[in-house]
């Protein structure tokens, strides 16, 4: 039985049989959701967001550490947000970015759990959920 989150789509096994058929001894490999061009565009957007997130947040942390007059409680709160966003940019986006480069989710259940956990831990608890098709 296939339990993917795609509407109308069916999973495929290694031998090409649909999910409704008998399961072979191999593992399940769901069909891609988007076209290869869409995956390339998603990878470009995610890569750009990751670069902007890493660069911008590193700049905030550098400025905070360089200028002592910025060490106020309000700025410390902003540094905390910046650090959380930096960690999301480094650890949360990389799994999805790599999956977009490979035209679908390529990690196992542990990678899927880490993807959701890192988003929750580092700041995006409401919008970053494990939505891997294979699990």
From TrEMBL:
Pfam families: 7tm_1. The keyword Manganese does not apply. Gene3D superfamilies: Rhodopsin 7-helix transmembrane proteins (1.20.1070.10). It comes from Cricetulus griseus (Chinese hamster). InterPro entries: GPCR_opsins (IPR050125), GPCR_Rhodpsn (IPR000276), GPCR_Rhodpsn_7TM (IPR017452). It is found in: Membrane. SUPFAM superfamilies: Family A G protein-coupled receptor-like. Residues 56-135 form the G-protein coupled receptors family 1 profile domain. This is Opsin-3 isoform X3. Its main location: membrane. PANTHER family: OPSIN (PTHR24240). The chain crosses the membrane at residues 42-64, 76-98. GO terms for cellular component: membrane. The keyword Glycosyltransferase does not apply. The gene is Opn3.
